[in-house]
Amino acid sequence: MSKKSLIAFLVEIALYIIAGLAFYQGFHYFMADVDGFKHILKVGPMFLSCFMLTYLLFAYYYLIHQPNEEKRAKTLKVNGFGFMIGGGLLLVLIIVNIILGNYEFGYNSLIFPVDIILMDVLMVALGVLITIKKAWILEKIPVICREYSKPKWVTIVGRILGFVYVWIAEYFFAALLNAPTYIDFTTPTFGHTIPLYVMMVFSSLVLFWHEFYLAYTKEKEMPYEALVAVRTIMLCFSTIIGIAILIMDFALGHTYYISQNLQCILPIDYMISKNIGPRLLALCPMIAMWFNFIVSITVMAKAKERKETEPLS
Amino acid sequence: MKNKRFALIALMPLLFSCTRVYSSAEHAKEMEVSGDQDFVVLQLTDIHWNYSTNIKEASAYLSNTIKVAKERAGHIDLLEITGDSLLVANKKIATTLYDLIDSWDIPWAFTFGNHDYEGEWSMAWMNNLVSSSKYKNAILPEAINKDDNVDGFSNYVINVKRGGNVDWQIYNIDTHNLVEEAGSYDYDFIHPNQIAWYEQQAELAKTNNSGSYVPSIAFFHIPPTDIYDFEKENDVVGGIKDEKFCPGEHNSDFVKTAKEKGCRGMFFGHDHSNDIVYRKDNMIFGYGVKANTELYSTEKDGISITGCAIYTLHKESNKFDLEHLIVDYDDMEKGPSALTWKEVNL
User: Fold this and answer.
1) CB pairs below 8 Å between A and B: how many?
2) Which of A19, A105, B24, B242 has a CA between 20 and 30 Å from the CA of residue B292?
3) Which of residues 270-289 of A touch B (CB under 8 A)?
4) pLDDT in tens, chain B (346 residues)
5) Residue of chain B nearest A35, judged by CA positions
6) Under CATH, domain B2-343 is a member of which superfamily?
7) A182 closest CB neighbour out of B89, B115, B121
């Protein structure tokens, strides 16, 4: 792996973790007002500022995985405007809230609302930088992309699945990083939660592996057979772990294991009275792996036969 | 699923039938009343502070409600916080709320609600907070952090004593949180071992009261399913019903048992748009008043149904007065609104 690819990979992981932590916080702000959005003027800029970092993560992802130079330049330009406009609007709304006395210093976080102001300032600054230094950025940020040809629908479905998966995985990874605030080893049902903590790590590790694999194979030109083998191993691994979690949740899950331990990280479950969080955690890597595997052995196999190995846009 | 549920209910008495003696000291607190004054309890419920709460404004409303109630009742002997004090929030917001409650200089007791563990803290942290020695006015049980075989944390009785005798008993019962069953969550209920504990406390008080049960009232968060029986009776003391009842999923024998042992009233929160109170067989049974507009609330004639409930326990009697003090959230300076109601000698 080249130094550039390695740096691009590490930046992506760092961004994933930071965006995840912001997303986790933003999601809690969102859930605090979800019943009717009575305080949307106050809470809206709070959660949207946090979600902007996930937007930055997705923008970065598409920049490093876009082989078509023209589309790459367009992606950068559009997102640069997005950062500027989004960050700028949110900054205005935050200032309005401060003037109205809606934001009280230090309650929602140690430095609130300075933290959300900093996030939006960062977005505006990035947008400005992209606008004035577009060519330099395009040169410096490498393209990490080596894939067999895929039809458009596979790309679209893959992207939708990817979005959903990243949101879930980054949320739970950040929830794990936040565990010191809510973990309680003394509850009688703590042991039942351990598989879920494992899954919180695993769902992100699968993403890290995927990105590392792409960065690594950029130069290595992994043969098709090796690709299928790697994906088969990951498929089996994620299926076994996913099924184990589902069995644990359905059959062995204690009546109180969520409510005594994980209530703060599953606000949607509590809102709709359905236990969906653990199932999403178990199913997401499985679905992603099955999708990748099926695409590998069908669509990509056909592409290989046609010897279409050039990267697709 | 239904069979599984029935099996669970059927097994419960068996599971909890191994009776044990609960330490009285861990679950009982005493308050001495002097003079001829009645004992006044103020109930605040479903405060629900969260990330979207304007702390300054919400604090002002709660403090104003306490001030208005004090003026109205003359004095307040005990503040009862009946759960869901918080929602999606952090430790700073939780601490700020309990600091505020303690700053009113009124002895306060509480029960947990189903949302009290939804913030970014653990159960142990929340229990440590509310039982912290920094709260000089808190009347809290030593049992809160102990594995005492009584399910829940906020189960305790306050014995209101007058001249050495227990005049009234005020029970705080933990209605827990949610029960997960086959992928769904149901509201929890008062468990058999809590009822056994309650019986023991009531019997103990009876022994020390020349063989008569001491009159009592009970506070908790989630209404029992008995609410439907009370509704059928259609004897409304006061208040409104503006949403469907959301009681615990399983029926428990608590209401029946408590009625037999001198309990005169049961009051709870949970359903924000209901403050209706019923009467049946000498038992007064109903909702408190949501303490503010957080999460959701209801209004009538443009006035928010928010404020507090005041219970005046008559001395050396098993009668009490009940007042729902409604203070409009958007016009709190006006004091009690026209929707305030009071019933005496219940």
Assistant:
1) 112
2) A105
3) 270, 273-275, 279
4) 334 444 444 444 444 333 344 555 668 889 998 888 899 999 999 999 999 999 999 999 999 999 999 999 999 999 999 999 999 999 999 999 999 999 999 999 999 999 998 999 998 899 899 988 899 999 987 667 666 788 888 899 999 999 888 999 999 999 998 887 777 888 999 999 999 999 999 999 999 898 999 999 999 999 999 999 999 998 999 999 999 999 998 888 999 999 999 999 999 999 999 999 999 999 999 999 999 999 999 999 999 999 999 999 998 889 999 999 999 999 998 999 999 999 999 9
5) B295
6) Metallo-dependent phosphatases (3.60.21.10)
7) B121
Q: Does A47 touch chain B (CB under 8 A)?
A: no
DSSP-derived letter for residue B178 is E
CA angle B11, A269, B179 (to 5 degrees): 15
d(CA B219, CA B81): 9
For residue B315, what are its two tokens?
């001395």
Amino acid found at A221:
E
Token readout for B133 is 């020695």
Q: Per the CB < 8 Å rule, is A107 touching B178? A: no
Minimum-distance CB partner of B180 among A258, A267, A279? A258
Beta strands across the sheet bearing B341-343: B108-111, B78-82, B39-44, B307-313, B320-326, B341-343
Q: How far is A141 from A123, CA to CA, in rounded Å?
A: 18
Q: Hey, where are the domains in chain B?
A: 2-343
Sort residue A125 into left (φ over 0), alpha (ψ -120 to 50) or beta. Answer: alpha
DSSP strand E in B175-250: where? 178-181, 184-187, 216-219, 236-238
- For residue B50, the chain A residue with the least C-alpha distance is A32
Cα A228 to the chain's mean position, in Å? 25
Measuring CA to CA, how many Å separate B234 from each of A305, B186, B227, B238, B286?
78, 27, 11, 11, 12
Q: What is the nearest CA distance from A203 to chain B, expressed in angstroms?
A: 21
Asked if ipTM goes beyond 0.85, one says yes
Nearest Cβ partner of B88 from A181, A258, A267? A267
Indicate whether A153 and A141 sit together in one domain: no
Q: Which domain holds residue A62?
A: 1-145
Q: Which is it for the CA torsion B43, B49, B52, B53, positive or negative?
A: positive
- Enumerate the residues of chain A whose CB falls inside 8 A of the CB of residue B179: 255-256, 259
A122, A145, A168 — which closes off a domain?
A: A145
Identify the domain boundary among A118, A145, A172. Answer: A145
Determine whether the interchain pair B183/A253 forms a contact, defined as Cβ–Cβ distance below 8 Å: no
Could you tell me which residues come within 8 angstroms of residue B278 by beta carbon, excluding any fewer than 6 positions away? B227, B230, B231, B233, B235, B236, B237, B284, B285, B286
Are B223 and B246 within 8 A, CB to CB? yes
CA separation, residue B154 to residues A126, B196, B341 (Å): 51, 15, 30
Structural contact between residues B75 and B8, judged by C-beta atoms closer than 8 angstroms: no
